[in-house]
Task: structure prediction
Amino acid sequence: MNTVVSLKPRPRKPADLLQLRIELAWIKPAIWRRIVVPESITLGRLHDVIQYVMGWSDGHLHEFEIAGERYGIPDPDFDWGDSPRSEKRIQLKTALGGMKSFKYVYDFGDHWEHRIKVEERHPPDPSGVPIFLCIDGANAAPSEDVGGAPGYEAFLEAILDPLHPEHQEMQEWAGEDFDPARFDLLAVSQNLERLKV
Result:
């Protein structure tokens, strides 16, 4: 008697969703975003999501620090010591290994450290389509190349005080409409819609 073996791959179970809170370190008032992503998201794709929700332009190097490991884009020209592991195929759930918090550093010169906390786990979307959502947040992200947290503090002093000697220069540099207290959830959500799976 011959046995028939099915070679059809089993359908993959949709990934649970993780609700993450992302907050820039050392800045008051807090600049933060709350997002929902599939736990199967690669760290490379999570980097893209963070860039979108924070309003960064992805013009600088970055790195994740999770459970004592470094993940990023290995570059022998810029790595002194051990290179980070490639983020390209590592899924968030694998890197976390049960941890509930980790760091993401963007722009090694300005050192924008993002503290990321896993707040909740949700069941997968019934459609099975991976989703990226921003559901809340507060305050505008700093302009890039402002000099990190200390530079941003000095920038805010100048831009918020019309009598400050650098007020006009900083306002021109950042744009007349820069408002440090603004967070536009709709605009962030529309940006995320452009991010393809």
Observations:
- Residues 17-140+183-193 form a domain with the Structural Genomics Hypothetical 15.5 Kd Protein In mrcA-pckA Intergenic Region; Chain A fold (CATH 3.10.290.30).
- The longest strand covers residues 112-122.
